[in-house]
Design a protein that fits this description.
With 259 residues, the protein is of the alpha/beta class. The chain is built from 8 helices and 7 strands; from the N terminus they run E-H-E-H-E-H-E-H-E-H-E-H-H-H-E. The chain has helices at residues 18-29, 41-55, 69-78, 102-130, 151-171, 189-202, 206-214, 225-236; strands spanning 9-13, 33-38, 59-63, 84-87, 133-138, 176-183, 247-250. A 7-stranded parallel β-sheet has the order 3-2-1-4-5-6-7, sandwiched between helices. Helix 4 links the parallel strand 4 (84-87) and strand 5. The longest helix is centred in the middle third of the chain and has 29 residues, at 102-130. The chain starts with 8 loop residues before the first strand and ends in a 9-residue tail after the last strand.
Length: 259
């Protein structure tokens, strides 16, 4: 399927690895030029070089923490006029509700709610002026079914979901769609970190911890960044213009719900 994306430009955040990289690779395969952001400069440059070599698209990098005001300003400057925005940030650390203080919540809000909102506010008006744009926010399955040990993520990402629910309806008439992708467990560094938490808490091996969590997924495995990226590319395509303000769950069937 031709996604109608060749020649478009996209900003993809937290894209040096994991799900963000999966989205960047899928967009590049459709001929989209990229602005990539991530905290680690070395990994970011390596990813950029690999994408350039594989797909022949233009790739600009801006290294740094997107919650930092100066970095955020640099990213917004580099991304002026983009057609596509993919918001993404690593999740806050796991724990229980008694573990967190106000500073912990503010940090989670900055990364998983306020930074995405700031980028939407900065970049969507130009998309509206052009009459075409796509925003995809990578959030979490936890906005549909809270995960007890991820309370910081539950809270911040649900706040972003509420913002998108209202805002997406206000900009859709200008040809701009805003939607959310909700990953369940995918084979990324985040999954390894959470597997390690299970391993330590239960005194089992990493293999046992992974098998235990895979058993909770009807598909019987973790997702891949490639299939996640393909879903992102579709939401960014010209075929998805009638999908507005939705939360697409990619979790292998783990959330047991009718709707």
């Amino acid at each position: 399927m031709d996604m109608g994306l060749k020649g478009k430009r996209a900003l993809v955040c937290a894209s040096s690895k994991g799900l963000g990289r999966g989205c960047a690779e899928a967009l590049a395969a459709e001929g989209v030029d990229l602005i990539l952001n991530a905290r680690g400069a070395e990994a970011l440059e390596a990813t950029a070089a690999e994408i350039r070599d594989a797909h022949g698209v233009d790739v600009v990098t801006v290294a740094g923490d997107i919650t930092d005001g100066d970095v955020q300003a640099q990213v917004i400057k580099a991304a002026q006029g983009v057609d596509i925005l993919v918001n993404n940030a690593g999740g806050p650390p796991p724990g229980m509700w008694t573990d967190w203080n106000r500073d912990d919540f503010i940090a989670a809000f900055d990364a998983n709610m306020l930074a995405p909102i700031a980028l939407i506010q900065a970049l969507v008006p130009a998309m509206m002026d052009k009459g075409w744009g796509r925003v995809v926010n990578i959030t979490s399955a936890s906005v549909k079914a809270p995960i007890p040990v991820l309370g910081l993520s539950n809270t911040a990402r649900t706040g972003l979901t509420g913002f998108v629910a209202g805002t997406s309806r206000q900009v859709a008439g200008s040809g701009v769609t805003i939607n959310n992708l909700l990953p369940g467990i995918h084979a990324t560094d985040r999954a390894v970190s959470l597997d390690e938490g299970v391993m330590k808490a239960q005194g089992i091996t990493m293999e046992e911890a992974k098998a235990q969590r895979e058993a909770t997924i009807p598909a019987g495995r973790y997702g891949t960044r490639e299939e996640f990226g393909a879903a992102c590319a579709f939401l960014c395509s010209d075929k998805a213009g009638f999908i507005v303000g939705q939360n697409l769950l990619l979790d292998g069937g783990a959330l047991n719900a009718t709707i």
